[in-house]
Write a structure and sequence with these properties.
Strand order of the largest sheet of chain A: 5-4-1-8-9-10-11-12-13
Strand content of chain A: 25-35%
Radius of gyration of chain A: 19 Å
Number of helices of chain A: 11
Oligomer: homodimer
Amino acid sequence: MSIVVVGSIAFDSVSTPFGEREYALGGAANYFSVASSFFTDVKLVGVVGEDFPEDHLSYLTMKGVDTRGVKRHFGKTFHWKGHYGFDLNEAQTLKTELNVFSDFSPQLPDDYRKARTVFLANIDPTLQLKVLDQIQNPNIVALDTMNFWIEGKNAELKKAISRIDILFINESEIRQLAKEHNVVKAAKAMQALGPKTIVIKRGEYGALLFSGENIFFAPAFPLENLFDPTGAGDTFAGGFLGWLDKNGEMNFDTLKEAMALGTVMASFVIEKFSFDRMRDLNLLEIKKRYEKLQNLSMSPNKALEFKN
Amino acid sequence: MSIVVVGSIAFDSVSTPFGEREYALGGAANYFSVASSFFTDVKLVGVVGEDFPEDHLSYLTMKGVDTRGVKRHFGKTFHWKGHYGFDLNEAQTLKTELNVFSDFSPQLPDDYRKARTVFLANIDPTLQLKVLDQIQNPNIVALDTMNFWIEGKNAELKKAISRIDILFINESEIRQLAKEHNVVKAAKAMQALGPKTIVIKRGEYGALLFSGENIFFAPAFPLENLFDPTGAGDTFAGGFLGWLDKNGEMNFDTLKEAMALGTVMASFVIEKFSFDRMRDLNLLEIKKRYEKLQNLSMSPNKALEFKN
């Protein structure tokens, strides 16, 4: 089993009320790759500039990520600068320098084309479609997006969504895309476009899964100290799809486990800046937090006996 | 087993994007009473004006609520007028006419004083303390409050909180009261004041329970059609405490069930205006939705097998 992921590889400059960091390793595809590498084999597609340190690529390779799909181009690496306020909920983007990313045209190495699972991270839907055209016979295709594409490339985005199995999307963005405030109705509207499974990301309020007629909810793991939410959504998707790919089948049981593992992985990455927490993380810690998360929510109670 | 509840009995004039209703039955103590009457015996303490229809009291009596603690005074019944926007999240208060409520001084009938469980709904903390002084030997005392008392009667409120077992509070209000944004830290700060159990109400994002060292989360029940969130918090508390009182003991298992039943009861009341949905509701519907809620969240998965 293996996953192909395409998306941004970036430098992030992030400030929060708890500190700041300049030009740290970032990018949706990186966060996704590291998280899913705990569960399955990952093949990364992206582009970096001349300034991207070899060390960052070695870190990914060391995690078992196949980086042959990462091209190095003349120029600078994509750079994002953002600020979070005290509630750490939504980032304020201060600067987006696309650099080498501006004429990125993903080309997949031959052996990538047989991937079972594909994650199209948040990039131009035209590029997402281009990647999809290169995959021979995928079993699970998932996609993430953002308000920028909902507004600027609505038709292409809907075309891409019509070809996927799982849509990952923020709560405010599904409302915008579906033009519907009620999340149950918004999810149904997205299912009508094609994907059977919709995952609505709600930040500190957890994530909501709609799969066919089934609904499932995973609360965010309650943390006393969170530092930097950058990458939480992609790390969630990495844990989620890593688990599905490892298991080789997508049913309501494996989807529930995927929701929980996505939650667990995201809860780690936000504990420190950039990849600092992920560098130390091991499977035992993941397993322990997974068990805590299980206990945190609904448990198998006996049938209740009522008054009359 | 029985619960004494003290709080507002009101007329509510509510407008939402889906319709409006003038001078409908409302009030925290009413919402609480009706919800908990499905599980246990309820004794209501409050005040109404000359304009309060006998029919409303008969409805409560028919639900098994003891209304001997409801006094009828000269003047008009407490009236609240509010508006909800499209997100139905927070009410905008347009009018608050205290009327007979302005010089309310709760006096409990003798047999009320032996109640096992007490709910001090959101009223002046001075009155909450006055009620507490009249209860002989309660097993569980719970309290709800709001920003108005946090700002205006902070010391009295903290004194009241120091004497209770369970604090029900909105997320924004616990942040304000604890002067702490992080909800885990805010809950610990409240526990340090006295109550072992803190329930943070998060509206459409569910509710979070802290009890001693334990944490538990119940998601809101996902609804396609919700109409009027008025009374959701008190209905939640009614299901919650009704279940605890019926069971006669408070431990982490009964608290988890209480969280789920509070969630279920609140999910019904918001489906229609005022008490319209509660009037039709039966235990079978409650039981079915409870089971759905169980399936919606974490289930007893096998221990996971990881990659290595």
